[in-house]
Amino acid sequence: MYFLDFFAGIGLFRLGLEQAGWTCKGHCEIDKYANMSYQAMHRIKEGEWFEEDITKVSAQSLPDVDLWTGGFPCQDVSMAGERRGLYGERTGLFFEFVRLLRERGDYKPWSSTFAMQKHLSGGGFLAAA
Fold it and tell me: By the 8 A CB rule, do 27 and 6 touch?
């Protein structure tokens, strides 16, 4: 089974999935320090797909995989943030993930998952959605 790691951070989705026997075909991470940690922590294979900025990703450039993961930015829904919701500048990048799923048409993965932090209690998520 193969997966892509979007909003990869330091690669915790990758760590868990590889321990479960999955193979990562690539990742996307814009933060240069998170990406440096990611590369130091994981065995990046030669030719593995990579893009810094999800807004520049073309759906056609993505390798075929079974699963897409994404720990997309939560600053705009965090109680510590400005609570702009899913349409905030950072958290709104979730919609780029959705765009790519739509653009893949029949060639999208059979599953996708994303993580959001606990800060969604108290109506935060409903207010954001």
Answer: yes
Whole-structure pTM value = 0.75
Q: Give residue for tokens 């930015």.
A: 73
Token pair, residue 93, equals: 């990048």
> What residues are paired with 69 via a beta bridge?
5, 113
Mean pLDDT across the chain, nearest whole number? 78
| CB 124 within 8 Å of CB 79 | yes
Any idea how long the chain is?
129
- Active-site residue (options: 10, 28, 54, 74): 74
> Residue 54 contacts by C-beta under 8 Å, 6 or more apart in sequence?
6, 7, 28, 30, 93, 96, 97, 100
Active site annotation includes 24: no
pLDDT at 95: 79
